[in-house]
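Q: What residues go here?
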């Protein structure tokens, strides 16, 4: 049974979605005031790993990730540069989507932007005001923590010391309690052109509000999984809970899954410290980019990942070993038994699942995979790997890769690839070859037809296969 460590209970819990077979998941997405760094992508890769493993385990997944396209930093930067809001944020959003593709991250079903949901946010604020959980001061609206007794439980705050360490913005002196946070920020001169009309006055929404509002709009008032980095536990996620549960009176999220940081030299990688890498800084080649994905997904999401170029090199070496094994398996023609490989592949896959079920323990799961990799390499070296056995091992690696997603062609920056194969066609070709090696003739014919329909003609040869455009 799949279990997640749930930040809400600080325990591993059995995973049971609200709707049988269908999982609704929300992830805090990027703030597009700058380019995302590789630490941010750890958060997005965790969401991807969860989604892939849920699908692998037979669930349907509906996934939503917000794009924060309005906040203090964005306002400061556009007003300094004299740029329009959309023009400024979309340049970073575009690069973000490009990087997601480079990392083979399955797109979310929706990427709602905060600025496209102002009316819904205004409604949510009105609901909170009606319930006595929000009050207006000088055109700003604040959440009244005193009205939500459970405040602080999720983040494990000590009620006695809760006032310490909470900063008060200079323009928030009107708050009744220093812990209260802004739902709506009144327009001020330095906001320039940016501001929306609302019943409480012109202004803009607070950051915490957008995630409550957009998650509930697309996933319902109660949903299954919410992800983000550990830095968001407080105040962001605590505030989301207060807003959503305060407005609906229903439990908001069932499982909170958080990723630890990516550090550099034992310090958190962050934009404000200036100690960050972007994907393009470490990804000089397609292999480097795939190695970063490999490094993150094979590290446990609840342990800090200390990034160095050496760790990236060791991921590259591990990935190269897997790729070389696949290449050798395509060519295998030894004379060993095929049946024993089926048994070994089944047992290893069961072990892989067992570790993944245990709060996505990818380090153990990948160690199990390498157990079979060792055996297969040995058999190949000794000429004991038959084509049937090779097909079985290839099928196993492909299954594992549905979860890890590390065998892929890194998308080129140019979307159009007229001369070559698309990654999808490439995958169909390889899957057909695997099916053929495993003597699954029905499946290989079916794939040949699919390829033909897309204009790719495959011809089998003594050493493998060749393809041409029809
Ligand atoms: P932001 O764009 O700052 O809103 O952050 C997007 C996501 O990246 C959030 O889930 C953060 O918790 C996460 N995050 C930020 N810095 C790091 C880091 N150094 N390592 C891992 N995750 C991070
Ligand atoms: Zn959020």
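A:
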């Amino acid at each position: 049974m799949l279990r997640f460590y749930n930040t809400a209970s600080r325990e591993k819990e059995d995973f049971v979605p609200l709707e049988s077979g269908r999982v609704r998941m929300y992830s805090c997405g990027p703030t597009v005031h700058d380019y995302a760094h590789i630490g941010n992508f750890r958060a997005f890769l965790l969401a991807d790993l969860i989604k892939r493993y849920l699908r692998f385990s037979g669930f349907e997944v509906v996934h939503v990730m917000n794009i924060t396209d309005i906040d203090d930093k964005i306002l400061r930067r556009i007003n300094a540069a004299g740029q329009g809001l959309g023009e400024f944020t979309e340049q970073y959003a575009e690069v973000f989507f490009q990087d997601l593709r480079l990392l083979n991250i399955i797109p979310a079903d929706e990427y709602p932007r905060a600025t496209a949901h102002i009316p819904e946010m205004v409604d949510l604020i009105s609901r909170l005001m009606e319930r006595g959980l929000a009050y207006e001061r000088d055109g700003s609206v604040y959440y009244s923590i005193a009205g939500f007794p459970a405040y602080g439980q999720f983040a494990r705050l000590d009620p006695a010391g809760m006032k310490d360490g909470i900063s008060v913005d200079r323009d928030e002196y009107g708050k009744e309690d220093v812990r209260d946070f802004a739902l709506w920020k009144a327009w001020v001169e330095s906001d320039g052109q940016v501001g929306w009309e609302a019943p409480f006055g012109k202004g803009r929404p607070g950051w915490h509000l957008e995630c409550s509002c957009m998650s509930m709009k697309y996933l319902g008032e109660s949903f299954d999984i919410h992800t983000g980095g550990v830095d968001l536990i407080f105040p962001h996620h605590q505030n989301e809970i207060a807003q959503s549960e305060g407005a609906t009176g229903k439990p908001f999220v069932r499982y909170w899954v958080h990723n630890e940081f990516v550090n550099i030299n034992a310090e958190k990688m962050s934009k404000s410290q200036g100690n960050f890498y972007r994907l393009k800084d470490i990804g000089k080649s397609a292999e480097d980019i795939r190695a970063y994905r490999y490094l993150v997904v094979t590290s446990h999401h609840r342990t800090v990942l200390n990034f160095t170029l050496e760790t990236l090199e060791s991921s590259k070496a591990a990935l190269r070993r897997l790729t070389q094994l696949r290449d050798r398996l395509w060519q295998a023609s030894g004379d060993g038994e095929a049946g024993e490989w089926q048994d070994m592949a089944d047992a290893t896959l069961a072990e892989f699942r067992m570790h993944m079920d245990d709060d996505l323990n990818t380090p153990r799961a990948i160690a199990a995979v390498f157990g079979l990799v060792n055996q297969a390499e040995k058999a190949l070296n000794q000429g004991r790997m038959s084509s049937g056995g090779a097909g079985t091992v290839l099928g196993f690696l492909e299954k594992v890769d549905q979860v890890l997603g590390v065998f892929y062609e890194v998308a080129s920056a140019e979307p159009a690839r007229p001369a070559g194969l698309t990654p999808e066609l490439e995958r169909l070709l390889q899957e057909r070859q695997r099916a053929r090696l495993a003597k699954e003739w029905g499946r290989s014919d079916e794939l040949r037809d699919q390829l033909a329909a897309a204009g790719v003609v495959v011809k089998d040869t003594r050493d493998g296969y060749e393809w041409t455009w029809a």
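A: Context that may help when evaluating the design: The longest helix spans residues 309-331. Residues 423-469 form one domain.
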